Amino acid sequence: MIDRQDGANDPLLAPLNEQQRAVVCAPQGLARLVLAGPGSGKTRTLVHRVAQLMRTGVPAERILLVTFTNKAAREMMARCEQLCGSSAWSLMGGTFHGLAAKILRQYGSALGLDPEFRILDRADTEDQLRAAVNDLGLDLRRDGLPRVRTLCRMFSASVQRELDLGATIDLRWPQYHHHLGLIQTIGARFVERKQEAGVLDFDDLLVGWSLLADPPASAEPAVHQTSQALRERFVEVLVDEYQDTNAIQGRIADHMASIGNGLTVVGDDCQGIYGFRGADAQNLVGFQQRFDAAERLLLTANYRSTPEILSLANLSIAHNRTQLEKMLEPERTSLGLPPWVVQCKDREEEARFVVTRARELQASGIPWSEIAVLYRSHALSTEVQVELAKQSIPFVVRSGVRFFEQAHVKDVLAFGRATMGDEFALRRVLLLYPGVGPVSVRGALERASVDDRFGQMAKTASGISRRGLEQAADVLAGMIERSADGPSAQLAFLVDHYRQAFVQRFDDSNQRSEDLEELIRFAQGFETMNQLFADLPVVDQTTRNGDSGPALVLSSIHQSKGLEWKRVFVLSLVEGHLPHAASFAEVDGVDEERRLFYVAITRAADELYLTYAQRAGHGRVQTPSRFLSELMVDTEPPFTMVRPSFS
């Protein structure tokens, strides 16, 4: 346990433990790295650090407090005001983008910016980029170019990672490498349009701030003078969630403290799970190499989880090759509940176990909202969603759009409904094809017939429209021909076509392809399309009902970061799911997946269930995750292995 005697009579320090006080009372004007484990009270520590700085004479306007989300920023600023009163009003605190906007309005004239510049939201940014494409006379679909949203992400990733556009495309969108010249032309026109309109998008805000924080040697003297004034203004810079900073954010933070030298970064390399978004783990891991006199402090006292859960978390993350070592220390006493590893026969049994056990927990007094089901990929929640619906349990999905409401899943299901004579579904299907519009669809619907395999739909059409209608007719006919083989075979035939023709229109086409494979696997439990669709409306209704009252939470592990529940289930701990198959080919891939597992474990306060199915579709054997076998280090592993009691 952590000693709490020092500072017991000081109202600012009394609520803190010894580690937190060490951070709060650390001398100003120095660089320090604070490694803060999950559930260690880092927000409280940062807020009290700000209050202590102000109490010792640092003016609020000379403190810069940076965090990642608007919610976290609002919470921190409100708590600073509670501790410091109105004197905290002049504190500069907020997200990277929010602070960049404030700083550029005050100092951006050196860069030629009008202080009244307008900031484009994401929709406005896409509109400007779409207009740039039109200016160049391009047709993205016809010319085989990425969609506008994908182009936005390409340009954004290039800025955030501080990589040239070609390297960025090769890294994340290699299928568009042969279009690099055209994409660069679009990007140049996009920049021109923004400059002509006097507007900035979110990435421009970071670029502008970086030019002031760390101006190139070739910059105008006025820029260097403004940079000097800006950096002299802040004597203490505090950055939260530092492991999530990308290249440009890390550089901004480092250089904003280059004069006052007071830089406190708080983070946890063991929770660095956003590499796919451009987060650069080296910002944190390499901090003490960049600031060789930097002090390292620890926040390891965990107030959230039981000792048994923390023991498992510590044991797992110890297998990562590169990390800044620390051990979570429990502040809670044991409840006598070990983590459970639940070995299930198949995915259906896994779902039945989770839902049945969740119902038992709720009956024992645990609110639905204190029970969460976490997973690596959204598609892995399919069976659980269906089982929750069957048992009329309210649930909410926090990992994006609900599985059966995703555009690509709805597209594929529309093909299935169309083979059963659903006119609205057939309309959706036909409009997917290039050149097919409302007029073509109207004529096709008049001639469509399940009985003749939709062969007459394209009879009066011509050109691109005719080719699209003929393709649709062939696919629908092929599905009908496979009816005797069941819906799984029908969907497998369809998905091959859909993947080639349509899925590439999405930014995250690989993930969506995985979702479609999961849909095929899910359909194996049904003999006919009618049976498959009979269950789906129940799922939709239950998810809607879950929005209006206490509900069990379904969430991807990524979306769960920063949250906690009393009881947590982690699904599908098998090789290829967690760790994800794509990670096997990446240098740091499996280590980042292990960090993801660590995040999942540490969301649980009282009880943790780790589940996996021995078999997937068609009897395919699944290998339990290496993250489970790594825990088998002695004769008494830190978990109890069980099978579902109803099997």
Q: Determine and state the CATH class of the largest domain.
A: Alpha Beta
Tell me which CATH architecture of the largest domain applies here.
Answer: 3-Layer(aba) Sandwich
Q: Calculate the terminal CA-CA distance, rounded to whole Å.
A: 42 Å
| Helix content bin | 40-55%
CATH homologous group name of the largest domain: P-loop containing nucleotide triphosphate hydrolases
> Could you say how many structural domains there are in total?
4
The CATH topology of the largest domain turns out to be Rossmann fold
Secondary-structure-based class equals: alpha/beta
Q: List the total number of helices.
A: 26
Mean pLDDT: 88
Low-confidence stretches: 1-5, 541-546
State which percent range the strand residues make up.
5-15%
* Number of beta-strand segments: 17
Physical arrangement of strands within the biggest beta sheet? 13-14-12-15-16-11-17
Shape category: globular
Overview of the molecule:
With 647 residues, this protein is of the alpha/beta class. The protein has 4 domains: 18-112 and 205-302, 3-Layer(aba) Sandwich (Rossmann fold); 118-197; 307-394 and 549-642, P-loop containing nucleotide triphosphate hydrolases (Rossmann fold); 405-533, PCRA, domain 4 (Orthogonal Bundle). It contains 26 helices and 17 strands. Strands 13-14-12-15-16-11-17 form a 7-stranded parallel sheet. Helix 11 links the parallel strand 6 (236-239) and strand 7 (262-267). Helix 1 (18-24) crosses helix 2, helix 2 crosses helix 3 (70-84) and helix 20 (463-481) packs antiparallel against helix 21. The model is unreliable at 1-5 and 541-546 (pLDDT under 50).
